[in-house]
Amino acid sequence: MRSPVASGSRRFQLILLKPSHYDDDGYVIRWWRAMIPSNSLAALFGIAADCAEREVLGPGVGIDIKVIDETNTRVHIPELLALLRQHGNFGMVALVGVQSNQYPRALDIARPFRAAGIPVSMGGFHVSGCLSMLDGKAVELDACREMGISMFAGEAEGRLDKVLQDAAYGELEPVYNFMNDLPGIGGTPVPFLPKKNVEHTLGLSSSFDAGRGCPYQCSFCTIINVQGRKSRFRSTDDIEKLVRMNWAQGIHKFFITDDNFARNKDWEAIFDRLIELKERHGIPLGLMIQVDTLCHKIPHFIEKAKRAGVTRVFIGLENVNPDNLTAAKKNQNKITEYRKMLLAWKAQGIMTLAGYILGFPSDTPETIRRDIKIIQHELPLDVIEFFVLTPLPGSEDHQTLWRKGIPMDADLNTYDVEHVCTAHEKMSRQEWENIYHEAWSLYYSPEHVKTLLRRAVASGLPLASLVKVLVSFATTVPLEKVHPLQSGLLRLKHPSERRPGLPQQHPLVFWPQFVWETVAKHVALAGTILRMSATAFLIKRNPASKNYMDQALTPVDDSEEEKLDLFTKTAGGTAAVTHVRKIAQLTHANH
Question: pTM for the full model?
Fold first, then answer.
């Protein structure tokens, strides 16, 4: 048994670093204020802080934890190396929550630390997904082995102690693989980040996971193969604890990252506890959750979500063509329920955001344009986030293509669900990329934005909040060339952050060009803000706006629904209506 690390003035330096990835010009995507908080960082900080408190490196041996989210904070590698040298290189760098598109950047960050002899470990969806679904060497994992980076597959609850101890003794193992032994998360250290880190996000928001795992089988999804199909949950006491810890530092907005909170068996108990914290203890909670398309069938779910502080809900709509949903094994999505579900959220004045994937087998540029028109006209959705169907390492789709030897893009940086990574049967690569970019301008056309604002006034949705989101989603792709979920406020760049192998611009060239681009983009952005704000102001002032009605807001009439384009323009839609009708007849006959 190893003896404890010598105590005294030595303090172990733990650097938790969440990497970003490179844009199309090769520069790190970084913002003054980023949109999405990193739950991986929050979870790891909570676990690491618990390790420090328990003195897992021995009595009197402290652990200093430094948190860096590269989407909103520059990684100053020389400064970090100097910090480690001050402590005799007694520490480690943990690359946290690394997704496939972040893997190249993570390797580039790790390289100088490994050259200096610093222990480096890497975890996240790329490592875990590849070790779960492939042969252990596939998709560039050997790059970690060659550089001496320790790979961590699985989740860190109950496992970080050993990793820290091994790093302290210079004995990090090449691989820690816990994919077949996922831990329970109830009663474990809760996700938490200090306010100084949370301040780098828009709206001063943090995140937490109330549960992990998903029982569904969507072929494009990595969650089911990384977090498992058996759901695991935090207790209501855990949730209250993390809310109170955050409220003590003035943070009350959260993104609950569960892939489907509606399938949390304790959703009602959690909502009840949050309602109590909000209504009795005065914590002004603001929540965003992710749910499936059948959550409205759960009694009281949407009503309690509203009382608990939910202001935005993300729905995995994915597509309006049942044939595409079947191909992706997403049979739990019933298009016959879409309007009922969305109207139920509308009735509570909660903003709806939906993910919509482009590139399913039946898709063509023409069908995508048609489906966007159907959504605009018939579904009361507020915001759509478009994604390119991507064979992400760790998904069944990727495993199938990999086993068949079908070509996929060799550059992992493009696996960000906004670049085309493999061939499509009905679209060329260029057609697929073009329709992805066109989809944003089609949905967020000035005319449809007016419609969305009218619907918001009629349904009691906070207009200012919707305008902020619409501005972001209407402008980010054309102006910043990145997905809105990768966006933030004020894009930051540095000449030293360009991808290795690409030419490094001279500062006298880089900085004037960067300033000019920034000014030009913000002039265009200001114009959009002014136009959209003026439109919203005029709509709100119009007394008739409160009585606005269109096809999307029309209450569901089952006898009329089957006439909608949603159900008549695709063979799958017609079949779905026929199936529902048969079920209704059989149910009626049995009664």
Answer: 0.93
